[in-house]
Amino acid sequence: MFSGKTALITGASSGLGEEMARQLAAQGCHLILVARRTERLNALAAQLSAVTVDVITVDLADPQAPTRIFDQVASLERRVDILINNAGFGFQKPTLEMSLDEQLGMVDVNDRALLALTRLFAAPMAARGEGWILNVSSVSAWFPIPGMAAYAASKAFVQTLGRALHEELKPAGITVTTLSPGGTRTEFSSKARGQMDPSLEKAMMPVAPVARAGLQALARGRAVVVPGALYRAMTMLTRFLPESWVVRLAGAVMGRHE
Fold first, then answer.
1. Cβ(113)–Cβ(134) under 8 Å?
2. Angle at 8 between CA 29 and CA 24, to 5 degrees
3. What is the number of structural domains in the chain?
4. Given this model, what pLDDT does residue 183 score?
5. Rg of the chain's alpha carbons, rounded to an integer?
6. Within 13 Å and on the Cβ side, how many CA atoms surround 58?
7. Among 59, 67, 169, 167, residue whose Cα is nearest residue 117
8. Is residue 231 flagged as an active site residue?
């Protein structure tokens, strides 16, 4: 479906972003790869030489980064058909053990940059009457998590925004899909948690099927996709349990820290 299109992917230097780049390139989709690590982006671009690949190095924690990305895409004379807001980070730390800069940095990357890029690139998509936007959230969006409070809240923002825009932008010809993975074996997970709890490690999914689920859901026009039967069951539990139970359970399972 995406052959001959151009996708811009943030957080493309590793994990889900890198895997989505590989899967899209295999479909014949051209790429604009965005991340902070130039060497890794260039190495990936060299491996995907069967399609046109441009690299943009930027730190999305900078409030001006989305505008610079948009302007650089224009200077390259590239048209973005597919926007994949994949960049994000988080910490498994209690709120009072995190600096304010760490917490606001999460909001800047996970939410502010995602919203800005969505707004910037959705406008030309709407003018053309066609476009696709994939926002990467998390199953954490369903769970207020003591011990990961700011991260879970940032992903709840992504989830709520995506669900609303799925309906709002549909008349303009734009598909907005929210990918909400559970535990996935990426650099993000190792950095967020440090030493992974063995019971949580067993539930981690490989990156390839998670990326594939997101791209397939985008192609099919779905609003939200949660890869993995276990994680879909977890999100369904929130419909039936009292909210106070959900918060305590999330803190006990996901908010544990050394």
1. no
2. 30
3. 1
4. 77
5. 18
6. 24
7. 67
8. no
C-alpha 114/C-alpha 128 separation (Å) is 21
Q: In this structure, what CATH number is given to the domain that contains residue 231?
A: 3.40.50.720
Local structure of 12: helix, strand or coil: coil
What is the spatial distance between Cα 118 and Cα 121, in angstroms, rounded to a whole number? 6
CA angle 215, 220, 225 (to 5 degrees): 60
Q: Is residue 258 included in any domain, yes or no? A: no
Q: Which domain holds residue 109?
A: 6-253
In a domain, 155, yes or no: yes
Q: What is the pLDDT of residues 191-201, one digit of tens each?
A: 545 444 555 66
pLDDT digits (tens, 9 = 90+) for 202-224: 667 899 999 999 999 999 999 99
Strands of the chain (E only): list them.
6-10, 30-35, 53-57, 82-85, 131-136, 174-179, 224-225
Catalytic option among 89, 151, 188, 231: 151
For residue 45, tell me if it sits in a domain: yes
Q: Is residue 18 part of a domain?
A: yes
